[in-house]
Every structure is written in C-alpha cells, then in structure tokens.
Amino acid sequence: MDSTSSPSPSPSSPFELVSSALGRYIPRGGAAAAAGSGDTQGDRTTRQRVPDSPATSPQDQILGAVNLDRDLRITRCNLDAPVFAGLDAAAGSPFADLLPPGDVPTVTRRLRQVLETGEAHVARIQRLRRGDGSELVVSMSILPAAVPQESLTVSVIAMARRLHLYAAETAIGTSLDIGETAQSLAQSLLAWGDVAAVDLDFAVWTGEGVIGQAQGRIHLRRAALVPDRAWPDGYVTPGDDLPSDASRLLAQAVRRDDAPQAIVIPDRESVERVLGGPRVMRALVPGDRSAGVACIPLVLEGTPPVVLGVAEVWRRADCPFRDSELLDLQELVARTAHHVDLARQHQREHTQVLALQRRLLPRTGGDTIEIASVSQPATPDSAGVGGDWVNSFPLPDGRTALVVGDVVGHGLGAAATMGQLSTEARALLSAGLAPDEVLEHLDETVSLLDDAESGLAAGYSALGSTCCIALYDPVSHHVALSSAGHLPPVLVSPDGHAGPLAVHPHPGLGTEFALREPFDVQTFGAPPGSLLALYTDGLVEDPAISIDEGIDRLADAVSTVHPWDALQQAARHVVSAVAPVHQRDDVTLLLARMIGYRKGDTATWRLPARDDAPARARAQVSSLLRQWRTRDGTRDNALLLVSELVTNAVRFATGPITVRLIRTGHGLLCEVGDTGNGRPRLSRGGLLDDGGRGLHVVHRLTTRWGVRWTDTGKVVWAEVAR
Prior knowledge:
By secondary structure, this protein is an alpha+beta fold.
C-alpha cells in the first residue's frame, strides 16, 4: 500500500514528534501497517528510508521511540539505528520483554502512572535487554498521548559517555534535598553496573559539618539504592545504618595512605576476603550475580580532603570494570560531590529552621484554656520552611497570650526574623504591656531589620509581615485583641454561632511612617466553651474563591468542632477540610478552647481610696479564705500581701481601688488595681526603711509579682503559694 493513500497519524502525537526528530526510518502506513501484520520481518521490510539529516548520520543516531497501547504492548517502534541493534521490539509484544526481569515491576508502575495521570515521566536512567542477554543503558522518558489514557510513547536515548556524564551532572544538581541528590547520583551510576548505592557519613546525612576522618568516628548511612526492587533480609536499604564493621571497612578501603582513592574488588572471592564476616556480606553484597564492586569516595576538596561518603557500583564478575569505565565513574562522582555538600549545608539550615519552629509551637494551655495547633509547610523540603509562626503561653497574672504571625519570605532569613519577633512579643507581653503596645515595638523592630546598614538581617526584607495578638482573661471571660495587617480570627460561641471578629484593618508591620496607623485593642466576649481560631493566610487563600469565602469556609469547619472532640485531632481535621488542594503557601492554625475559672474561684471588690481601705480589704479577703478552707500560713501571707498592696495604692494613687482574688491550681493570685501611672520598683533599701518597705514585704511573701497597665491605670499582681 502506498503511503500517500493511507491515513497518517496526527503530527502532534508524541511518537510523531520524536520520530520527526530522528529524521530516519518512518514506518509506512503509520500505526495500521505496524500493528496490522504479525510478521515482524514483513513489518521491517515495509519501512521507508528518509534522507538523513545533514547533522546526523546513521552511525551517530542515539534517539529512538516506542509507542504503547493501554495494555503496554508495542504498536509502533522506531529503533532501527545501529546503536539499538539486538532490541526485539516487535509489534504486539509487551514492552516488559525489553526490560531486565528485576526492573519490570518498577517500570510498569511508572508506565501505568503516566497512563492514568497524563503527567510525563522524564529522563530516568534505564537498562534495556538485548536478545543475546547483553544490556543497553538509555535515558528513558514516558510521554502521554494527546488523548489521556489512550496510549504512551517511550523515547530512549542511548547514553554515549560524554552525554551521560553531562546528563547525570545536570540531573544531580537540580535538588537541594540530600536524599534526592544521593538518589540522582545512584541512578546515574547504574549505567555502569547492575546495582548502585550511595552511603554517606552520618554527619553529612544530618547536615552537620565534616571536618576530619578521626578513627572510631566512622558511621555510614545508606542514602540511596537503585534499582527499586525487593531485597533479601539483612541487606542495607535507604535509611538504614551500615553495620559498624561495614562502615569501617569501606572507609578504610577508600582511604589508603591517608588519601581517598577509588578501589575495585573484581569477584566474590575477593569481596569475601575484604569484607570478612557473613553479616557484612549480607549487608553489602546485593546478590550472587553482582559480585564485583567499584567503590568511589565522594571527596570534598580541601586541605586535607574530606570524605563525605562512598558510592558503590556492583556488577557481574564476568563483566570486569575497564580502566576507562573507572575513570568515568571517578569523574562523575568528583563532579557531583559538591552537590552533596550543598545539600548537606541546606539540610543543616533546614534542621535549624525546623528546630526554631518547634520551639515556637504552643505548649499545653493549662487549667483555663486548651490549645492545639497545626503547622503545614507548602513543600516538604527546606525551601518550604517559611515564616509562619504561632505561640501561646500563660502570663504571670493568670491570663493567656495567643500570638500568630506571618513573616515575609522563606528560609533562614525569614526564620531568624520569625524567632526574633516571637521572642520579643513574649518578653513584652510577660512584662505587662498591652497588645497594641507590643505591636508598636514589633513594628519598629521590623523597620530596623530592614535597614541593611544597622539591621540584623541585611539583604532580607520583612516589611509587610503580619501579626495578631489575643489575650484571654479567664476571670472576665474576655479576649483583648490587636492586629497588624493579619486576617481576622474566627470565634465560635458556645451556641455554635461562628464568624470572623470585626478587627480594625491595619497595613502591617514596618510600613512607611506616613502610612502608619495607631494599633487598636478591641475586646470581645468569650464565655466558657467558646472556640477561637487564629490562622495564617495560606489556610484560606485559594485562587478558585475569594478570601472572604475562604474565611467563611474556615468558620463553617470550626463550628463543627464539638466540645467533647479532642482539640488536636479537630485542628488537623479543620486544616484538611479548608486548606487549598494545591497549597502554595504555608498553612498555620491555632485553636483555643476557652475554659476559664469557675465563678466560685474568684472574687472582686471595689473600695474607695481612703485610709480604711486596707482594713476593709483584709476583712473581705479573710472571710473568703475561710470559706475556701485555706490553711493558716497561706491565709496570713495573703492578708499581709493584700494589706501592703492596698496601702501602696491609697498612698500613691487616686480614685477607686479594685481588689481581686483568684484561686488557681497551685496558689492564690492577688490583684490590686488603681488609677496611678507610676511603676512600683523594688529599691535597695531594707525592711526597716520607710520608702519601699511594702514592696520588700511583697517580694518576700510571694513566688512572683509584677505590674500590667490598663486604660485607667495599672494593676499590681502577686502570687502566693498554697
């Protein structure tokens, strides 16, 4: 049949695109001619020679293509270049016939994955089996058809030496994850053998610095192993530590005369002599056929050079390593050792950032509030470690601080800024500052950090970072909240009504002076049983919906949390239900369930600022402590403490005095509020001095005491142990 009268396949199909790149041997009659005859020889005789490309001769051709149907059987092929001689790619035969038996499960899984998802699988090193039992190393890509789930095109490139070295180095340098880097190196090394492994020094694997090779310190961990198959019991697979004897022997073998060198052990008998015991043999030797091994050290150049690990290539004893092959292996490993060290440094940064984020995670809330949080980076590698942070901690005066922030950017610069802002916020809140005052200080800090000359993070800008601070008072059951450019928290009342709080918008931290606005403090009721959700924008920002719709979805999800649900599990459920499917930013959620103090555990009195106020306060407190059955020593200390605090308030302030007593799980909390604005300070004077005597008494009687500021004055609080 003449090709001009036959329907031709679509020129846009992957097979035709690859075949066009070949410039030679296009099948006559398209797919029908290839699949319509069961005679393989006849199929080959119907091929039509296309003039060679001026740049490519038949002997230099290294690119081929195979088309597969849904059953992974060959429908067409273009493997007539001399380099592919011996590959039996007959139409109608399974593609698995071209693979070594051990690689069939892995490659079949990849083929079906591309068939189902329509996503290409590009440039993986693979071996193809010739009819005489020999093997050809190729770079294999799996391309989906234009119509999903219809067919596949497998393109193969025979790996010439220089092309393979270039492709290998390019692939290895694409990731800063140390595991992926080692896996890419092992994949490339497979071109020279049956099994390839990469074993790294444990300090390299964890991101630590390796400055020497002191004896007794050798500890190797398997970082990569190819091909992916079932291995016998006792064989070391990725993530496993090599036995100490194996680590020592490998390290000694590649470090002869105190200099790293590549070695070749040609056969099983020699391997047994070098490795010794059966335990080490089981751990390192992949099988009976792969008995010879080349060990190449991964060396970080320096004075002295540092061995980061060992790359091993195993092959059959009847295929010994030639000198040229050993040089190729050494060249490849030498070219890529610095990528391993870059991944090590990145791993160290990743570990430091994660450690910092773990330290910022909220602890348990205590008796008056229950806390749960979820932090989910956008990507699992170190590049995905961002600046989202949450924190919650009890304040000395019995309140609880809830803080959430979003620092601009990712990586160590963002993490350093995140840690500084979180620590500063905690210190200022513990010192008694109001949320708006804390945000004013954070705003100034971000502005200073952006100054490349005097800032602590030169070259990194945190301008536009956001923060939200909420203070929960377990006595009044109110939340005082202040926000700097952050999305509004969601509050669920005990009756199940949920919605975002009406927070006054603010441009964020570090804005220009002319655009700065005063930070507001807004107070909301949060009775026992209420649920407060603080979050970062990554949880509710989805390109498919508006930000308001995202917040409404969050409110609906939080409203389904029942009072008896475990809060940590509920937080994870909310994130899974609300977070965008294609997550582009870090996701952070903090849930706080309000419990508060029972009504019978607190008491408040308002007294006029008169000379009889201390006596009246003592009488009220004494009566209450008898009802609480407080022991005599604690009652005496509390009465003396209240008397001194009220006396100081009468002496140095004006207006009414508020006395509040709280029974906590570990003591009594006494608070005395007044309208004065002076800060009580403990002087160096003693108990017999007139000035400051009251504060010395307070200091001796209490476990801790302090001051917090209010809109009308101040509150001096002190805690007495029960």
